């Protein structure tokens, strides 16, 4: 199982530039959203004991690392991303003892556990924030507090320190009558931003991280970690504040300006990450760090993930997931243009070709299901075919793949039709802001946007079987799941797929195994082919020997459409005249079908293949 039978990359193969190669260079990570994974006590909410009960399934799948979305104590305003106590488990999920049991049982199976680290902000119910509401308390400067704009009555419209908007709708400033000032929150008003400029904040964060590492976890996925350094002028004023030397951006259609250019990848970002590495991870082995990185370019990804710079192992970049949004507006989805996706992913691959590392993902807890987004979930045949095709496309890139719970089954969007079916704070706030308060989008268009892009699409319960609640909780449980089970769980579930060699689940097992044992897949160079073709996504992976001679090559071709596609010229020129079935490394169809397709120089709808050259 996983580490016990996974071959490690030899030092003659370069991964991220470190020597020896890190253990995760040919690993696969599986993200668990605990609230929706497995309910063990019938309260309608997934928990730690539920995760422990499913470890054999995960070990059998072949993944190496489990990333848990937050299970810390929390008021659950944003489903746990608002933390009130970093060193305790929320009773919804269990106890610290349950966490220790999960760690122990996972490690027995060769599975590592990575926890979500949310330190750009806390809950407003955290003891640190409550103390900071007193200007005379030692914690007074642990958050971004500011007085009302001069000449305005505190707490009234227009008195906010600047015009920044929250990513969850409305102003990014909330007035606190007790302190008589405003605090800054990039997300919910119950998620105040920590002030990382204060060294005492950083010391407290590092102390907490060390506490968890000493307890036995194997690393952290760091939520919006590239938003911790804010841009201020020489007097410490934020852009747009009264007297600030830095001008704010103009307000947008919702009536607020965008804080992102001043909060993402700020001037002290590298300093903070290097300090964290030194204070928490120096002297430790076997860990993994990955940062959620809004606002980070591929070039900056190279710097941050280059082991020489001592910051993070890898980052999640998001430009490829903005490729199908009108005017970069999430709630205005458009059809994906394949050349645009190629351009973005090619840039990410090329940026880390000499140093650093890439993370590979389409799905996570904040994204709609990829088979509904870029595939075709309209029929069983097209859903399975497109799920496999998109999986092959992603997993054959260079980097560390991340699988989100249910992705390996081809789980789809929720296909909700009514607003009251949604639970996601972002979606509900966006509807109120855009439809009711500002009228910048009509209700029908907005409901379409939410159906396509709401985070709840990824948060419906894991589909274990075809029973009433999909095996997520007992069919006779007194409490229904916290969010509705997708009705298609009767057809799409683990029980139906685990013993089916043609299933999406079986195909993911092949992909994971291939990365474990094939150094070309794990670390070979990447070269894009036929960049402008609108149906076929193709590239070459090549592994060179120590003397620079190319030793092995793989040609990857994926038809990202529901129509037959001609193999484009640059790709076709590399194809042997007669492809031997033994040269087919992996295919979404069977080898005989793919051999015939390649002989015709075409790919069937949603057909993907990798062959040895």
Automatic annotation (TrEMBL):
<dbReference type="InterPro" id="IPR045857">
    <property type="entry name" value="O16G_dom_2"/>
</dbReference>
<dbReference type="InterPro" id="IPR006047">
    <property type="entry name" value="GH13_cat_dom"/>
</dbReference>
<dbReference type="InterPro" id="IPR017853">
    <property type="entry name" value="GH"/>
</dbReference>
<feature type="domain" description="Glycosyl hydrolase family 13 catalytic">
    <location>
        <begin position="31"/>
        <end position="459"/>
    </location>
</feature>
<protein>
    <submittedName>
        <fullName>Alpha-glucosidase</fullName>
    </submittedName>
</protein>
<dbReference type="InterPro" id="IPR013780">
    <property type="entry name" value="Glyco_hydro_b"/>
</dbReference>
<comment type="similarity">
    <text>Belongs to the glycosyl hydrolase 13 family.</text>
</comment>
<dbReference type="Pfam" id="PF00128">
    <property type="entry name" value="Alpha-amylase"/>
</dbReference>
